[in-house]
Amino acid sequence: MIKLRQAIVVEGRYDKNTLSQLVDAPIFETNGFGVMKNREMLEFLRRVAQTRGLIILTDSDGAGFVIRNFLKGALPKDKVLHAYIPDIYGKERRKTHAGKEGKLGVEGMTPEILLSALQNAGAQTEQTDAPTERITKTDLFLAGLSGGAGSAEKRAKLQKELCLPAHLGANAFLDALNLLMSREEFMIRYGEHHD
Length: 195
Description:
This protein has 195 residues and is of the alpha/beta class. The protein has helices spanning 13-20, 39-51, 62-74, 111-121, 137-142, 151-161, 170-180, 183-190; strands at 2-3, 7-10, 23-24, 27-29, 54-57, 80-83. Strand 5 (54-57), helix 3 and strand 6 form a beta-alpha-beta unit.
């Protein structure tokens, strides 16, 4: 597994699942064209780009390029890298039919192709000599932000406080927290939430 400095944005959950087996990096989904109407998500991606850098990795079909071009115009150009996959025709295993253009998407690419695309885009790897402590699901539970009475309300309040999109899934919320603060900062600010 390769640890990347930048976060990655992909079209959907199957793309995210495929990439998460290869790289240690926050990976966020556009939910296809959904990002075009989701101002919160777009603002969040801007913040991620500014603080960490962002790699856009979309499918090589027409829809993928529409999403890529939208993000290209909406995000800070100097903080965004573009990773491209080749046109390979076929269908993903989980699908009964090939896509409209007959091309494989990110989820259908081999690990070698995906890693090469990220490398060619200029992705930066991080040294793992001194691992930084990350905020964990257990930390969220102990802070009252998951798994308990009122935890959803507390999490929604924190998401609003941190200007995070309201509809982030649990894992994406955790990734976002780890992008925005260290575990130590989290524990100081939120570790004792018992209200």
